[in-house]
Amino acid sequence: MSASETSSQVDHNARFRQEAQDAFAADISTLSSERDMLDELTSIRSFSFHFIKDALRSPPAVAGVVQQGLYQLWHMFLETAKVFDHESAYQEKLVALLLWTKEFDSLYRSLHPTRTKTAAASWEAYRFADSLQASWEPLLTTGTALQQCNLAAFSAKALAVGICRDSIGRTALWYLREALETDDEPKVIRLLPATVVWIEQCGDHLLTFSARDQSSEEESTAHFLAPGALALREGIDRHGFSMQRWLFWRRRLQEFSHHADPAVAQTARKGFMRMINCGRNLDYNVPGEAKFAEKLQAVMGEALVTSGKNSVSGDDIDIDVDWVD
């Protein structure tokens, strides 16, 4: 491709990105009905065709411009994730659409091996995980609790289906450090709802990473892996996931389950109850879980006898989070 052709393509891509950005901004500000949300997903899918194929077909000379288009595509996904409610089925649809972009990339490569031979080595090289982390960082301080919960649901669901496992795992670790490994109580309370969403949606992954002491030797990610100040004071100095940190997070949720504010206590308790079952889900021995389950079963047995019912659930008894000790 000549210099003039390259310049023309750069100009064309810039115009298209601006038009796409303007259209997306107009749409995302008016999402209210189910029809709006379905139309938004359709729109993102349409832009995905363009930006993914552009990344696969363009010469290395315009790689930077192509990446700008991919950043814009990921921006669409992430801003939409902040709007879709974390309990909505549309979060699942959005994650499925993200997974589809990865599959579409693979299909296109398989049909056009010669045409795509200069493309990035893999879909992961399109830097979705970097965009996700970059989206999280300002949200931690300036985002609303609802935006945090919504993006946590999208992030954790993406991790749960295997998208960028290691990279999104680091983002999860970073978030849990910021939310639980600090003695700044107002900050803990502010970040607590999204903390619980992370644990609810990918707790089994987080436990597995912790049990395997998953970490990274990349210097560029070291600051995401370091323990927080409160964890360090508790003697936890290993970077990355560890069972020590998992138990520390569980203990922090246990502590906040006794908070004077009933709403805070209820949220923390919800997270604790999700964590206390992760090891049993995976047939993995986590300290305290068997003891908690034994006490829970005993109390439920007593409740069954006294209630006269055919069955009882956790909602029928007063569960004490301190049974874990």
Keywords:
single chain, mainly alpha, 325 residues
| Mean of residue pLDDT values | 91
Q: Biggest β-sheet, characterized?
A: none
SSE topology string: HHHHHHHHHHHHHH
Number of helices: 14
Unreliable stretches: none
What would you report as the Rg, rounded to the nearest angstrom? 23 Å
| DSSP helix fraction | over 70%
What shape does the CA trace take? elongated
> What fraction of residues sit in β-strands?
under 5%
Distance between the termini: 68 Å
DSSP, total strands: 0
Helix/strand-derived class? Answer: mainly alpha
Structure description:
By secondary structure, the protein is mostly helical. 70% of the residues lie in helices and 0% in strands. The chain has helices spanning 3-28, 34-57, 63-83, 89-111, 128-142, 145-160, 165-180, 185-211, 222-225, 229-233, 243-256, 262-275, 278-281, 289-307. α5 (128-142) packs parallel to α7 (165-180) and α8 packs antiparallel against α11 (243-256). The model has no long low-confidence stretch (mean pLDDT 91).
Describe this structure in a few short sentences.
This protein has helices at 3-28, 34-57, 63-83, 89-111, 128-142, 145-160, 165-180, 185-211, 222-225, 229-233, 243-256, 262-275, 278-281, 289-307. α3 crosses α6 and α5 packs parallel to α7.
